[in-house]
Amino acid sequence: xxxxxxxxxxxxxxxxxxxxxxxxxxxxxxxxxxxxxxxxxxxxxxxxxxxxxxxxxxxxxxxxxxxxxxxxxxxxxxxxxxxxxxxxxxxxxxxxxxxxxxxxxxxxxxxxxxxxxxxxxxxxxxxxxxxxxxxxxxxxxxxxxxxxxxxxxxxxxxxxxxxxxxxxxxxxxxxxxxxxxxxxxxxxxxxxxxxxxxxxxxxxxxxxxxxxxxxxxxxxxxxxxxxxxxxxxxxxxxxxxxxxxxxxxxxxxxx
Length: 255
Fold this sequence. Notes:
Layout: E1 8-11, H1 24-34, E2 44-48, H2 49-55, E3 59-61, H3 69-78, H4 82-90, E4 92-99, E5 102-107, E6 112-114, E7 129-131, H5 137-152, E8 157-166, E9 169-180, E10 186-187, E11 203-204, H6 206-218, E12 227-231
Parallel strand pairs: 2-8
Antiparallel strand pairs: 1-12, 2-12, 3-7, 4-5, 5-6, 8-9, 10-11
Helix pairs in contact: 1-5, 3-4
């Protein structure tokens, strides 16, 4: 089996419930040590956006949210909590789709998602708070990477992940909303196929594929596995941003 293409994915153990101000780099390194591992160059750490948001204090107390007229109307149409709708509008550039039980928006970060990624699952015991996505996930990824490198001398890649639905496919998948130390999109145009024919249009959402691989382990319910270490990937050279994955509006046939 030696020499066959492969990679490993490990859910780092013992990550605690995160509070505002917690140092994620320090907690991740403690989890790496707990797993009897040493961080290596070309490792990729996939970190749930939820713990990044928690560490950055992106909580909103729903009792403090005053829904506007637009939010109240949309809440009636979608059968959603008007306070959550108000937050989704504040985090968004515009509405993509709306119907009973569904509100899909273009997030201020440029991607399209349900309810702007606002979440109440695994947030707190009271269910009276909502959690917003990080203000700048790419910057968050760069900061965590820099701290890890400062503490270990190792420049691991970072992917901050979220879960998104897809318009023509059932089920959520992991996606990258923050990237540091690796390309987010790889361009395979000009690469020969098995028969020497050069690819003309193929690009890969590489960071999204990495995030989805990690989500097979981290889960979305009560698993408590928010950090996944991937090792053995043949990372393409370069450094990118998760915003590189967003399809420009002039190329989008469905928005």
